[in-house]
Amino acid sequence: MFVRKLMIVSSVVLASVALAQNAGVAGAKGRGVAANGDGLKGAFNFEVKKAVRPNGSSEVGGKFVWEARIPATNTSVRIEMPKCREFAKNENVAEFGGPAVMVVKRNGESKRFEGPLNVRVVDNRPPNAPPNSDARDRIRLGFRAANSDLTYQFEGLVREGDIEVWMRR
Questions:
Q1: Contact present, 117 and 103 (Cβ < 8 Å)
Q2: What are phi and psi of 148, to 5 degrees?
Q3: Rounded-to-integer distance, Cα 63 and Cα 111, Å
Q4: CA-to-CA distance for 164 and 162, rounded, in angstroms?
Q5: Is 24 left (phi over 0), alpha (psi -120 to 50) or beta?
Q6: Which of 30, 39, 92, 104 has most Cβ atoms within 10 angstroms of its Cβ?
């Protein structure tokens, strides 16, 4: 009986130690302008994070804003995610998402769409790299309207500004 209790207590202690080692805060932040292969540009501003407590529970938060203009169709797009609900980090890559609102303005008319937003950012640029460095951060986002077949996608390189993916234990 004593051995069994000792083994149970030992297992709980080891599990607690393992969870405590995984405790910390991971996040991503960025502000700037990105351009895709067609020369279309978009401005981004975000800060998101995930905190993992020693007991294994976690909390995700933060926000994301994207604004782009499509000159050929005189259209502007603004996507706002007021609360990040999902976050994952692997090395210099962060993926996050949550419910968002996209407002499309064209010819003086605005249309509002709600739906999920997924974002992937890659922090390739060292903090002190010169502005003309070949190492460019990347951003990819995808929005799908909940009540229609409307989608918006963008993938490009950061031309102005910076993206930082980080971790603190």
A1: no
A2: -155, 180
A3: 22
A4: 7
A5: left
A6: 30
How far apart are the C-alpha atoms of 123 and 102, rounded to whole Å? 25
Cβ neighbours of 140 (radius 10 Å): 16
CA gap 19, 11 in Å, rounded: 12
**Is the CB of residue 59 less than 8 Å from the CB of residue 50?**
yes
Taking residue 34's Cβ as centre, other Cβ atoms within 10 Å add up to 28
CA distance 78 to 102: 6
- Amino acid identity for residue 31 in this structure: R
Whole-prediction pTM value? 0.83
Strand stretches in 93-150, DSSP E: 93-106, 109-122, 138-144
Beta strands in the chain (DSSP E): 24-35, 41-52, 58-70, 75-81, 86-90, 93-106, 109-122, 138-144, 151-168
Q: Per residue in 51-104, pLDDT tens?
A: 999 999 999 999 999 999 999 999 999 999 999 999 999 999 999 999 999 999
Q: Which helix (H) or strand (E) holds 4?
A: helix 2-22
For residue 151, what are the contacts with CB-CB under 8 A and spacing of at least 6? 142, 143, 144, 145
pLDDT digits (tens, 9 = 90+) for 104-159: 999 999 999 999 999 999 999 766 666 666 788 999 999 999 999 999 999 999 99
